[in-house]
Amino acid sequence: MTPRLRAAVLVLALTLSLLLGAPVTAHAASPNVIVTRNPGTTHVTEGGLATVIEYYRLAFAPTDTVTITLSPDAQISLDATTLTFTPTSWEQSVRVSAVDDAAIELSPHQGTYTHVVTSADFNYQGAVIDPVQVPITDNDFDTESPVVALAQIADISMTRVATAKWSATDNVVGALSYSITSRASNDSSLTFSAQSSLYGPGPSLDATLALPGDGRLWCMRATATDVSQNIGVSNERCVSVPRDDRTMNQSFGWVQQMQSSAYHGTIVSAAHKGATLTATVYAKRLALIVTTCPTCGKVRVRFGAVRLGTVNLYSATVKKRVVIRLAALPTMRRGTIQIKTQSDALAQIDGLAAWRT
Questions:
Q1: The domain boundary residue, chosen from 197, 216, 241
Q2: Is residue 9 within a helix (H) or strand (E), and if so which, with residue range?
Q3: Of 80, 108, 137, which one is at a domain's C-terminal end?
Q4: Do both 10 and 133 map to the same domain?
Q5: Residues near 2 by Cβ (< 8 Å), separated by ≥ 6?
Q6: 333 and 280 in one domain?
Q7: What per-residue confidence (pLDDT) applies to 30?
Q8: Is the same domain home to 346 and 247?
Q9: Against a cut of 0.90, is the pTM above it?
């Protein structure tokens, strides 16, 4: 048979296939072997009755026996792994079933089998047929939640933003969707706001989060949702947005100044011994936001009746927005912090940060 005649026969075979309602060829790379799928089924099911039938038809009569050897992967099984075609028998079929394994897998996932064609007829010897892929629905259900970790976040923010990074692992391979939920509380209240979303859901593993408001504690968790809608929740991380100096009660001797380099552009200064600043907060840990300088003195800090220490504000050069962490209290409690100048040397206070843990 000439190449032109073989091509004409192939066109006729495809035309008859369409007229009879069979699906079009999906897998054959060689025009001499036509592979079609039973139009009634599109996937197979683990542990179920759903199977797929693949039909094989030669484009024209071979001059000798044609053998197609099928090799399935571990996901599927075939009711025959060898198909034999003769000059009088051009059509064969194979039924594809899913292997019912114990693994939890995505649905659908793919099973694949490949072909090797051998024949003494040179028209078919070594013919290339594309691997056949069959979608599989799993019958094992994933009930395990992802394991999520939220990395350490800087626990103080003077810019009202925080950068969060997180990671997650899951027992099933598949895309995870992430979100960051938060709750916030004023430093003068024990009440936290309801959970709200700061990020997501989305695919990223990091985000820059807005933390509006001063004198607030923001606590956040990362969540990961897998393809089975199981949700994993991370540990909680908290960030203090300091209260500004303007929100603290000032005794005689303090002067408020506008400074572009200060926290929120203002700072209170005193050069008078015994000047006090106070604020009532809930806290276990506290930190002062200060300016240090060559002519700066010291302040004594108390929380209620507890003396937290004397803070030296001296530095060889002027430094703005310096965070000075105070001694931690034994437990979280409500109290009034008092900051008191110890001499007539300069003291400059810019803000106050508080944490519950």
A1: 241
A2: helix 3-19
A3: 137
A4: yes
A5: none
A6: yes
A7: 67
A8: yes
A9: no
Kindly write down the DSSP assignment for every residue of 240-289, as one continuous string: EEPEEGGGSEE-TTEEEEE-TTSGGGEEEEE-STT-EEEEEEEESEEEEE
Q: Is the dihedral of CA 149, 154, 160, 165 positive or negative?
A: negative
Beta-carbon contacts of 340 under 8 Å, excluding residues fewer than 6 positions away, are: 274, 275, 276, 299, 300, 301, 302
Per-residue pLDDT at 325: 98
C-alpha span between 3 and 90 (Å, rounded): 19
Q: Please spell the DSSP secondary structure of 208-226, one letter per residue.
A: EEE--SSSEEEEEEEEEE-
pLDDT recorded at residue 29:
56
Q: What are phi and psi of 356, to 5 degrees?
A: -90, -20
Q: Which pLDDT belongs to residue 5?
A: 47
Indicate whether 280 and 230 sit together in one domain. Answer: no
Task: Dump pLDDT digits (tens) for 165-211.
Answer: 999 998 877 778 999 999 999 999 999 998 888 898 888 899 999 99
Going by the DSSP 8-state scheme, the letter that residue 187 receives in this structure is: T
SS3 call for 11: helix
Strand order through the sheet with 298-303: 249-250, 276-283, 333-341, 298-303, 306-312
332-352 pLDDT per residue, tens: 999 999 999 999 999 999 999
| 114 and 10 in a common domain | yes
Q: Does residue 268 form part of some domain?
A: yes
Give the DSSP H/E element, type plus range, for residue 304: none
Asked if the structure places residue 142 within a domain, the reply is no
The pLDDT of residue 15 is: 44
250: domain CATH number? 2.60.120.260
Q: How many domains does the chain have?
A: 3
pLDDT at 39 > cutoff 50: yes
Question: Whole domain around residue 196: which residue ranges?
Answer: 147-241
